[in-house]
Amino acid sequence: MTTDFFSQQLARGQPGPQADALHAMLEARSVALVGASRRPGSFGARMLAEVAKSAAGPAVYPVNPRYPEIEGRSCYPSLADLPTPADLVLLGVPDTALEEQLALAAARGCRSAVIFGNAHEDSPPSVPGPAPGQEPGADSPRTLRQRLASIALSAGMELCGAGCMGFANVGRGLRAMGYVEPDPLPAGPVALVSCARTAGSASRSRSPPARNSSPRRLLTCPTRSTSRRRRFSRWCSRRCASRTGSGRYSPARPNTTCPSCC
After folding, report:
1. Which pLDDT band holds residue 107 (cuts at 50, 70, 90)?
2. Which of 88, 142, 148, 256 is the Cys-Cys partner for 28 at CB 3.0 to 4.6 Å?
3. Of 107 and 235, the one with more pLDDT
């Protein structure tokens, strides 16, 4: 999911994302797409096309000041102009724009975000001030990833990323990715929470797809984010238990599958 800074702050007892923020992400009823584009073959165009394939039919809000509309949908110049806060924001923008756009999402009251970019910067600030809610002298977020995590932490937002491929909740019928995947996505009896970008796509690329090995929920997140993978896996397991009464749960490990028969 996010970064070590995020996990360290939670370990110190600071408030983090609420459970319903994770639920809002993985079963989003509204999705804002920052960087949506009309340009064929662009990441922004693929991102919009994939979300539009979602069987759940979430409200879709393209965000790009260059266009008044895209594919017949009203396009908003900024997240601040959305008619209502989005459950999920997809940030298909350059790393240099991530901090500003995530701050706008937090200010608008959006519940969660997917960060596709690596969140890399050549020259991080050398003497940062305390992060929002921190006491003077406390550890301050120095890297871009840490500052993004701090923004989300302060707003109670859930994050997927940076440096991820997004996710698909096949059982719900939600696609939150910018990469072309089969349509429809086959639903199997497992949930895959992967630390590898390619593992999820590889699990989908079998021909023909094997139903007993196709993920019903597919999420990717950075390798070092063990606590965030555990949150994802726990959510998937609880969804399974709520439907089956099984109550089964296995702690998440890299490329972990957990029961998902709901």
Report:
1. very high
2. 88
3. 107
